Amino acid sequence: MNESWRWFGPNDPVTIDDIRQTGATDVVSALHEVPAGEVWTLQSIREHRARIEECAPGMSRLTWSVVESIPVHEDIKLARPGHEKYVENWAVSMENLAQCGVKVICYNFMPVIDWTRTDLNLQLPSGAYALGFDQQKFAAFDLFILQRENAGADYSAMETQAAKQCFDGMSAAERAELSDNIIAGLPGKMTDSYTLDEFRAALANYQGMTKDTLRKNLFAFLAKVLPRAEAVGVKLAIHPDDPPRDMLGLPRIICTASDLELLFDALPSPSNGITLCVGTYGSRPDNDLPAMARQFGPRIHFSHLRGVTRDPLEPRSFYEAAHLDSDIDMVQVIRELLNEQRRRSQDQAHEAGIYIRPDHGHQMMDDINKTVNPGYSGIGRLKGLAEIRGVIRALTADNVELN
Ligand code: DNO
Predict the structure, then answer these.
(1) Architecture of the 2-399 domain
(2) Lesser CB count within 10 Å: N end or C end of the chain?
(3) Which residue of 133, 189, 252 sits with most ligand 1 atoms within 8 Å of its CB, as the best mutation to test the pocket?
(4) Do residues 95 and 55 touch, judged by C-beta distance below 8 A?
């Protein structure tokens, strides 16, 4: 398994030299400055690669191995007339990346919003800060800040009442912050940043769209890009919808093991794969993560290792817990990934490795006073990586039977 680390580019407060010190060997990155739908040129990819890979003699060289993510233009998700040119541009970006040796590509197919949290600064009993999702605050946003048309139909009378109470209890600044967290987006998001009105308009584009239609649009996109991925040895790794369920009246289609079964039944191409985002899938109690890691093992090209602790009274609410101390059995997940990696190393036809990265981390110690990308501070992720590395070392030590 290859240890990787996400880097947001030259403005990331965690630098390439910092990453080198973590002991990770591979970098996960993207050309965040290129607008969705435009081609990633060979030149811009080479420049970005040089920023990651060039290093002074005697220093450990990092490798840009994974892209997270090439954004999928909204017109593709909507299958709007003219979307074909965006599909073509996506495929050309992928081919250019392959030509530069970057062959694992994470992407997602979430309409309008990318990953979503209501809280970016939840203080834990340790004093460190975590990200969280609070279903009541989210409902308060939907019903009383966004005032989405027909939102009422998505909530029970009790939920609406609780959301109203929550809304009434928030100051104007808290409401503005909640709104920003949801619509201005979080680091690495693949969608535009919106005002409330633009956001309403973006949601309206999906009015009436069913899961089946969105799925059909995803499959049509993949039917065009997968043969080209196969031709250049690229593995695509779809990221789940985070949180993994319908929200704001939007259909979401990569949430559960059965969603993945539909994906692979329709498109069995060996280039069709997943990002096993343990924290995202694990924020649903009905997703059994070790079982999913086993079931989809050969399809896993990339894994985000992180866990969540759900609220026992409202399982849609969660906070991002320490990497080994969440509701998810991380040791078992890692065991399954190691089993898969071992199977691959015995199978000549299947030489690709699994890239893992510590996903998110608590904002702690010196990082508390720094400006950080929420979830992506250095020390908390380093702690996560160190813990995960310890599990891997222990499980792979001589004489430990994985199966
Ligand atoms: C957050 C991430 C997301 C993810 C994209 C994948 O930490 O998991 O930014 O990278 O949604 O396309």
Answers:
(1) Alpha-Beta Barrel (3.20)
(2) C
(3) 189
(4) no
